[in-house]
Amino acid sequence: MYEDRVTSSIEKKAKKTIGKTFLPEDIDKTILQTIDYKYPKRKINIELTTEEFSCLCPFSGLPDFAHLTIQYVPRKKLIELKSFKYYLYAFRNVKIYNEHAVNKILQDLVSVLKPYKLTVIGEFTTRGGIKNKVIAVYPQN
User: Fold this and answer.
1) CATH number for the domain including 70?
2) Which of the following is catalytic: 4, 26, 28, 57?
3) pLDDT of residue 98
4) Mean pLDDT calculated for residue range 47-59
5) Is residue 4 one of the residues assigned to a domain?
6) How confident is the model at residue 17, as a pLDDT?
7) DSSP state of 16
8) pLDDT band at 102, cuts 50/70/90?
9) Residue at 2 is within a domain
10) Can you tell me the mean pLDDT for 38-58?
11) Mean pLDDT (whole number) for 113-130
12) What is the pTM of this model?
């Protein structure tokens, strides 16, 4: 059914981690694409959420799952959602601490969007009886 489907370049970049484990610096932020925000004088709040984020624990190699919330006020650019989906997918086989994953997402989004403000909230599922919630904010207070 999907034999004739053409894989896009951003999908190829995101899927380079399949079958192997990688480090955070292997995530290619050029996957992230933007579109122009046509109302730059109007400050709006945008919230993106997903319950499908995963990465790998650096110690055990077991998957860490999280509900991610990204909130931002755009300046001139909006994140293109398909590219953002592939960017998050690229974390799937990356060994990274929860705190570092949230900060990397914040850092990469700030670098491509240059927003007025941006917050990334990662609510990681319970492991060993402990639930981990990580919040990173730009600009820092």
Assistant:
1) 3.30.1130.10
2) 57
3) 96
4) 94
5) no
6) 61
7) G
8) very high
9) no
10) 95
11) 95
12) 0.87
- How far apart are alpha carbons 99 and 89 in whole angstroms? 17
Distance CA 32, CA 118 (A): 15
Q: Which of 26, 36, 55, 64 is catalytic?
A: 64
Longest dimension (CA), the chain: 51
Tokens of 126: 């319970």
Asked if residue 139 has a cis previous peptide bond (ω within 30° of 0), the answer is yes
CA torsion through residues 89, 72, 103, 114, sign? positive
Q: Is residue 42 part of a domain?
A: yes
pLDDT at position 87 over 80: yes
Dihedral sign (CA 81, 83, 89, 90): negative
What average pLDDT does the segment 101-116 reach? 98
Domain encompassing residue 66 = 10-138
Distance CA 36, CA 126 (A): 38
- Tell me whether residue 64 is one of the annotated catalytic residues: yes
User: H-type helices in 15-132, by residue range?
Assistant: 81-89, 98-113
Q: State the average pLDDT over residues 82-106.
A: 95
Q: Is residue 1 part of a domain?
A: no
79 close to 34: Cβ distance less than 8 angstroms: yes
Is 4 a known active-site residue? no
d(CA 127, CA 17): 24
